[in-house]
Write a structure and sequence with these properties.
The chain is of the alpha/beta class and about 250 residues long. The protein contains 7 helices and 11 strands. Bound molecules: manganese (II) ion.
Amino acid sequence: MRNKTFFITDSHLGSGDDSRQRECDMVQWLEQIEPEAKTIIMLGDIFDFWFTYRHAVPRGFVRLLGKMAQMADNGVEFHFFIGNHDMWLFDYMEKEIGVAMHDAPEEMVIDGKRFLLGHGDGMGNQDRSYNFLKRVFRCRLNQWLFAGIHPNIGFPIAHKWSNHSRKSHSRKYNGYLGDDKEAIFQYCKQRQQRKTDAGEQPYDFFLFGHRHTPVTRPIGDALYINVGNWIENRDYAVFDGEKCELKSFSK
Ligand SMILES: [Mn+2]
């Protein structure tokens, strides 16, 4: 029965020599969960870099995109929270596949449970210089300028940048730093506090990516889950209407 919601994050497809293998594994995972999947939520950085031109499409990822299109056509609902690496997807997946795109953390009610979902980049004040860059990257004029650079020049530069940014991030934040040091965890805790202070229904689950470290931590009666990565790991999360848990894909 199709009644479950699945979450996946940070596959950074297009990076590393095993990108095609990771993509194929993801397609196999989609095939495995297909009989049960009502909704699939991608929490960002699925692609290591992407740019949607008005009239052309970057090479690669046809297996994943084809499988998603087929499932979407069969009624599976897809959501995509853009990450810091694939923020330039724009309307490509929405127009081509029917994926609902989100560019900031958002509340979603699934089977009566309250979720706060997002990628998780740019949180906490260590990320101040990053937030400046994010404004630069999100500026329409700059996007228009990049679109004007020939892809043969623009893509290698972007991939180099992307690689550098991913590596320096993983050097800086290696493993779970502890509740008090994890910016996304702290952000979720604050959002929960705000809800309670306003006398609103609290969240039940917080699901994010970006950290590449799979972890489940309590926030009061709620649960913070970082869905981890699809690079070294094959992490995903599944919600069955009652409980939400981290899992690892095996063939
Ligand atoms: Mn990220």
